[in-house]
Every structure is written in C-alpha cells, then in structure tokens.
C-alpha cells in the first residue's frame, strides 16, 4: 500500500513500491524512480462512475499514478491534510480532494440544499475503504470533533469534508430582517449531529448564504 506523507504543508509525498494512487489530474509536481500516469474517465469508477458524474455535475478529473519511487503532488499552493480511512467513508468536495490510495472506492452522494448553499452543486464525492487520502484547503484545515452531546454548525463556504457516523441538516436563519438588508451574512449553516470529524478551512468560498 502506498504511504502518504507531507513534504511541508503544501506538498504531498507518496512513496510507492509498485502501488497505484488516484490523484487530481495534473497535480504531479515532481517524482523520483519510475512512474506511469494514466488519465481516468469519470473519477476512476469506470462507465457507471463516468455516467453518474456527468449526470450530477460532480466533476473530478483524475489520473492513476503507478510506479516505484516517490511522487510529489500539489495544487495551487493549497494546504494539504493527510487522513486515514479504516473501512469508513469520507465525504469531500471534489475540488478539495487531491489524492487517494488506489484501493479506495470513489463515488458521489446527494447533498441537497447544503450543496446548493455552498456553491458546489447538489452532489459531493465519497471515498470509502481502507487506506490514506489527502484533502486540500485554503489555509490549514481545522479538524472539529462532533459527538452526540456536542453537535456542530458549519458555514457552507468553509466546509471541506467530514467522516464518521454523522447526519447533516441544513439550517436557515433567514428572517424578515434579512429581506430588508439587515442580515448578518450568516443566514445558512450545515448542522452535523452524531459521532465523527468535520474538516473546515479558515477561508470562506463565495456562497449564496454569504450574501444574506
């Protein structure tokens, strides 16, 4: 299995000995040893995945990297977080996924109003199985723990990913004052309940909620 490690905060180093990983297309910045790069259709799920992604609009251009040596990945100087999956599932915005172990399964999941508010569409990417994955954020990602006693509300523009046994719901604070121009700019949040981890970035994307 490939080994993920950080080379600084903005470069991911993946050590491989004949292993394969899936990475964002064009994200290789250097490598040593012998590497082969192959563009994958539809995010690496074959025909079904390709059709699903075209229908949902969840775009993720992916390449398979296979070889022996170390391959380095980065994307627009984004900060990178390496996390491990142990048979569980990660939900992550496609634009925030940099690399995943080749043995992990990728798919799409309906996000409903949360996706619409975050400006990332109505579907998000899922990564499932056992292995490592690397996610990107604008600024160092903060990992926040959610427990049954302590639910968490997150700005859709700052949300990056989550994992664990979490249920999410969409909260709206739109009132009459919002419509007369006295809103506080925090009219929408995602509420997480259950047991798991939520990754947020210290920077907010432009969203519909941010304007009201």
TrEMBL record:
Question: Do you know which Pfam families this protein is assigned to?
Answer: AIM24
| SUPFAM superfamilies, per the entry | TRAP-like (SSF51219)
Q: Which Gene3D superfamilies match?
A: Mitochondrial biogenesis AIM24
Superkingdom as given in the UniProt entry? Bacteria
Name of the protein: AIM24 family protein
Name the lineage: Bacteria, Bacillati, Actinomycetota, Actinomycetes, Kitasatosporales
């Amino acid at each position: 299995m490939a080994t993920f490690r950080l080379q600084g905060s903005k470069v991911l180093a993946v050590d491989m000995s004949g292993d394969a990983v899936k990475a964002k297309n064009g994200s290789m910045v250097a490598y040593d040893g012998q590497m082969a790069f192959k563009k994958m259709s539809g995010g690496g799920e074959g025909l079904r995945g390709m059709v699903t992604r075209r229908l949902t609009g969840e775009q993720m251009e992916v390449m398979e990297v296979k070889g022996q040596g170390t391959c380095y990945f980065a994307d627009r100087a984004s900060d990178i977080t390496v996390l491990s999956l142990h048979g569980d599932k990660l939900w992550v915005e496609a634009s925030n996924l940099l690399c995943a172990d080749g043995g992990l399964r990728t798919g799409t999941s309906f996000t409903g109003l949360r996706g619409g508010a975050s400006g990332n569409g109505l579907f998000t990417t899922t990564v499932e199985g056992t292995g490592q994955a690397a996610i990107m954020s604008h600024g160092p990602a903060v990992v926040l723990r959610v427990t049954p006693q302590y639910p968490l509300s997150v700005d859709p523009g700052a949300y990056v990913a989550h994992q664990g046994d979490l249920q999410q719901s969409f909260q709206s604070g739109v009132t009459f004052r919002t419509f007369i121009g006295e809103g506080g700019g925090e009219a929408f949040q995602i509420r997480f309940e259950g047991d798991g981890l939520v990754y947020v970035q210290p920077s907010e994307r432009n969203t519909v909620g941010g304007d009201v």
